[in-house]
Amino acid sequence: MAGGRASKRQVWFALGLVYLIWGSTYLGIRLVVDEAPPLVSMGLRFVLAAAIMGLFLAVRGGVRQFRLTRGEALGVAFLGLLLLAVGNGMTALGQLQGVPSGVTALLIAIVPVWVAVYRTIAGDRPSALSTLGIVMGLVGLAILVLRNRGGGVLPLLGVVVILISSVSWSFGSWIQPRIWLPRNVFVSSAYQMLTAGTVLGLAGVLSGEDLHANLGPQAWGALAYLVVVGSVIGFTAYAWLLDHAPISLVATHTYVNPVVAVFLGWLVRSEPVTSPVLIGGGVVVASVILIVSGERHGARQSLAVSRVRERVPTAPPPIGG
Prior knowledge:
Its main location: membrane. By secondary structure, this protein is mainly α. It has helices at residues 8-33, 38-61, 70-96, 101-108, 111-121, 128-150, 156-175, 185-206, 217-244, 247-250, 253-269, 275-298, 303-310. It has 13 helices and no strands. α1 runs antiparallel to α9, α3 packs antiparallel against α7 (156-175) and α5 (111-121) crosses α7 (156-175). The protein is globular.
């Protein structure tokens, strides 16, 4: 264990929360952008989540913990831009173009593949299992995108936008241990969410978006879910797991979340689960399993390095979708 003692029931309860919550955020985003402008609504999501988390931290530990050095301020702003503003904002834009929420989750699930590619380029040679996972991930991506494109199911622009999101998210995950950040992960995340919310809100306003107050209960309900459950509760459970469970177990969320997302998209919105989605998505999930397994068996350095290499959030994140 990385931190204090915890019962198996507590660990699996927290892990179940991460599985379900971060698997459901893709559907939540889709339900929001069906009625609301994507950039402004996602900006509002992160500003509200940052305010809630900031208030909680201030009550628990005072305001002095929010002091940042210049390097830390630049670090949280940079990560907020990569992980949440571009990563999450582009995900919302891609879904607005017509990419189903389940397929979006599968496209985002390729993040560990990009991280492994960055490591290879940087001279950090991956294990044989990880290398096989990289190849399989790219094959699964090709099946998922090209076969669906052949049937006219997936909009090309939306797919490209979401792939840009996954590339940005994975680069942020890879660069995170190489920049200055606050020691308190909750403080860091609150600043990242505030940065992302501000950038997305300004981008939405400058592009002419307008968040009308007469949105239906679906959009407001989904937005509230993303703020409270997706961002605050989901990340709290994730951060707790990092201190109380083996990182190899925590990392399993990277291949469980897309399965949950595909199921929820089919159940709630009747999103089609085509053969390319099943085959390509299955190959993508298998590739992530191989990469995570390769890291677990090949990385015997420090616990901190292992965490960075195996912890590839979703979305959000260490915030999720």
